[in-house]
Amino acid sequence: MARLMRRRTGAALQFFGGAGTVTGSKHLVTVGARRVLLDCGLFQGLKALRERNWAAPPFAADSVDAVVLSHAHVDHSGALPLLVRRGFSGPIYCTPGTADLLEIMLLDAAHLQEEEAEFANRHRTSKHSPALPLYTTADAQAALRRIDPRPYGSTFDVAPDQHITFRRAGHILGSATVSLTYAAPHPHTLVFSGDLGRWDRPILRDPELIAEADVLLVESTYGDRVHAGDPSDAFARLVTETAERRSVLLIPAFAVGRTQELLYVIRELEDAGRIPVLPVFIDSPMAIDVTGIYARHPEDHDLDMQRLLRENASPLAPQQLQVLRRAEESKSLNNRPGPMIVISASGMATGGRVLHHLIRRLPDPDTTVLLVGYQAAGTRGRALQDGAKALRIFGQEIAVQARVVLLDGVSAHADQHDLLRWLRGFTRPPRVTYAVHGEPQAADTLAATIRRQLGWQARVAEDRETVELP
Ligand code: ZN
After folding, report:
1. Is 347 a residue whose pLDDT tops 70?
2. What's the 328 CA to ligand 1 centre distance in angstroms?
3. pTM summary value
């Protein structure tokens, strides 16, 4: 039991998710009698992973002194309501942007869980009777009350002799790398990359480099890949085709980050006269709320975004943007002919309103479904990416006649080149570097590349292992 591994004086690190997989991010740092949990994410995708959400974590929730979040994505934050329900009563530290996003995302996650349980009870699709939600809105509200936002660049205490500094990660609004300095008995620094973004992308400032780490946890989602170049030509071609064929371009997109980047790019291409102006529908209540939050956090904006807002432009608003808040508005799209662009969550088609659009549009050979982000193993998005001829949605078998296109180069994640660029910012090699947050091949490849190109000690973090910290 993890509790026995507490050492009076030593320091240890344990990986309870986000190791060997891209979801469930949870890394526990124990220094003496103090415990800090880095991220508290939900598992998503494969059933065996999702089932882990229901099991109690292998550490006592009430033994954790503080949680520190890298960013708001559910695979990094979505298990907070469970942790609080199981007895965690400390602060949850994150940046102000993350705090605003969590307000929407945790409530939305709880709402989805409640809806899923209700659906299972109505249609008796669960072996449990009654089916219960993983957590409730009340659980999410209890977690939100524990949030304590801290700005980028400030250093604050999480425990006696343990300090945290957030720096920009450039991945989504509010995303941060976490530097944790602890004394055991001499000061050491553990750096956690969270999810790293890319350089020169719309809206957000670039990832910040960090000079020092004794122990480093680096994400490896695309540790084995290099993104294609600027995707805007390919995207402009698809939009132009959509206009010419009077068809539908359906884009499953993460409500947080990806939707805002798409809106920015469509607006920019329209301004430049590179695409015809088409009706653009955002059909995700969460994406609509999040777009407002994106505009309200200048500390995250790059220079172009700052300038556009100063000039009172609406950088996230294509000319014929229509936002659909109510379910009836969403349903009215079913009978609407093209040309149009529909952006709807969730990004990997694991839930949300995009499922209804997929039921309606997948059997239609005139529709193009555009995949614009990472599609984790076991998700419907991955099945589409892999060329599935049919998808199972709400118990129905839906034929895939639509064209499915993967737009490379639009990821919010650093690729192997970006990761190495960030790693080269360290002025001396960390004593050890762990590749986290990657499927096995991506994590293995990144660790091997770090050893070969940088000459550092690097290896893949193993799920549920405990390592000693210096
Ligand atoms: Zn993320």
Report:
1. yes
2. 31
3. 0.89
